[in-house]
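Exam revision sheet. Question 4 asks you to relate a sequence to its structure. Input first:
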Amino acid sequence: VQLQASGGGLVQAGGFLRLSCTASGSIRNIDSKAWYRQTPGHNRDLVAVTYNGVVTDYSAAVEGRFTISEDNGKNAIYLRMNNLKPEDTATYYCALSDSRAGVVYWGEGTQVTVSS
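Answer key, structure tokens:
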């Protein structure tokens, strides 16, 4: 499985971006799809996750501003980020998990920079 993330960039505070992540290869048995973010010197933190396309969960820092969605027909997941803040600046990563196999597939990061 290969994941390709895109959509990052430079935006002013209050603006929005939409990240995309497209998966190629065999993606059967994926039971969760998520977005994480990481800043230099810090851990990679969970931002948003969707379980089997039914249940979604968000970190407190982005609740109400970010929306995770998926398009199974395109093997893609998205992250709509509204009302961006400078503290949202980070490298964002998509991840697909097969919990039964204990495998997590990571995409390459896409940089999001929010200017004040």
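Marking note for examiners. The chain has a mean pLDDT of 94.
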